[in-house]
Design brief:
By secondary structure, the protein is mainly alpha-helical. The chain has one domain: MetI-like (MetI-like fold). Helix content is 79%, strand content 0%. It is built from twelve helices and no strands. It has helices spanning 4-32, 49-56, 58-90, 94-109, 112-125, 132-156, 162-168, 173-184, 186-202, 205-210, 218-225, 232-268. The radius of gyration is 23 Å and the shape is globular.
Length: 269
C-alpha cells in the first residue's frame, strides 16, 4: 500500500507538473517579449525594442484606452446594479428568486457566439450604430450576472434578522442597506467586481460582433496582430500579465496588512 509520505510525494509532483503546464507558456512569452529579432522561436539577444514600438503605436494606445475605459465603466455599473439586484433577490419570494436566477444563468451558460449574435441583431433592429457605446452596453449586460452570482452566497450567509434589528435601533431602510448589509458583503462585491473587470478586459467574441467605426479593444487588436508575425503581441501580453499580477498582490496583501495593523493597535491598547 502507498504510504502517507508517498502520497505527499505524488501530490507534490502532480502539483509541480500542473504549475509548469499552466505557467511555462507565460514564462516563454515574457522571455520572447525581450527578443531582439522578430523570431518567435529563437532568442537572438536582449532588447526593449518591441516595448518601444508598442508605446509608439497609435493603434495600441487607442486599443488600451478602449479596453480599460470600457472595463472600468462596465465594472462600476454592473457591480452597482448587480449588488442592488442580489440584495433585492435575497428579500424576494423563493419562486420569484428561482425564476430570475434561471434567466440570470442564460448569459453565463450561453456560448459567447450566441450572445454576440443576439446583441448584434438587437443593435441592428434598434438602429444603434455599432461602436464604443454598443460595446459598453454589451459588456455591462454580460458582466452583471457574474456579479449577482458572486454576491448571493454572501447574502445567504447573513443573519436574516440583521436588517430588522438595525431598523429597530432607529436606522432607516436606506441606512440599513448601506451601513449594515453592504459592509457585510464587501468580499462578495469585490470578487464580483474583479470577475466583471477580468471578463470585460478579456472579451473578444462579443466585442468583435458589436463593435464598429474602427473601435478596437486589446483582444481585437491582438487578433489582428496574430494574422502576421508581430512580436509586439508578446510585449503587450507581458504588460497585461504584470498589471494583473500587481492588482492581485495588492488585493491579497492589503487586507493582511490591515489585520496586522488592527492586532498591533489592540496590543498597544
Amino acid at each position: 500500500m502507498v504510504g502517507i509520505k508517498d502520497r505527499r510525494w505524488l501530490s507534490n509532483i502532480s502539483l509541480s507538473m500542473m504549475m509548469i503546464f499552466f505557467y511555462l507558456p507565460i514564462v516563454i512569452m515574457i522571455v520572447f517579449s525581450f527578443n531582439e529579432s522578430r523570431s518567435l522561436s529563437v532568442f537572438q539577444g536582449f532588447s526593449f525594442n518591441w516595448y518601444q514600438q508598442l508605446l509608439n503605436s497609435r493603434d495600441v494606445v487607442d486599443a488600451v484606452w478602449v479596453s480599460v475605459s470600457i472595463a472600468v465603466i462596465a465594472t462600476t455599473i454592473s457591480t452597482f446594479v448587480g449588488t442592488l439586484t442580489a440584495i433585492g433577490l435575497s428579500k424576494s419570494k423563493k419562486i420569484l428568486r428561482d425564476v430570475y436566477l434561471v434567466f440570470n444563468d442564460f448569459p453565463v451558460m450561453n456560448p459567447e457566439i450566441v450572445t454576440a449574435i443576439g446583441w448584434m441583431l438587437l443593435f441592428v433592429v434598434v438602429n444603434l450604430t455599432p461602436g464604443y457605446l454598443t460595446m459598453l452596453l454589451a459588456h455591462i449586460a454580460f458582466c452583471t450576472p457574474y456579479v449577482i452570482l458572486s454576491i448571493l452566497p454572501k447574502l445567504r450567509a447573513l443573519d436574516p434578522n440583521i436588517t430588522e434589528a438595525a431598523m429597530d435601533l432607529g436606522a432607516t431602510p436606506t441606512q440599513a442597506l448601506w451601513q449594515v448589509i453592504v459592509p457585510q458583503i464587501v468580499p462578495g462585491i469585490i470578487s464580483g467586481a474583479l470577475i466583471a473587470f477580468t471578463m470585460s478586459i478579456d472579451d473578444f467574441v462579443i466585442s468583435y460582433f458589436v463593435t464598429g467605426n474602427g473601435v478596437k479593444n486589446i483582444s481585437i487588436l491582438v487578433y489582428n496582430m496574430s494574422k502576421r508575425i508581430n512580436p509586439m503581441i508578446n510585449a503587450l501580453s507581458t504588460i497585461m500579465v504584470v498589471v494583473i499580477a500587481i492588482i492581485l498582490i495588492l488585493i491579497n496583501v492589503v487586507p493582511i496588512l490591515k489585520e496586522r495593523g488592527k492586532k498591533n493597535e489592540k496590543v498597544f491598547d
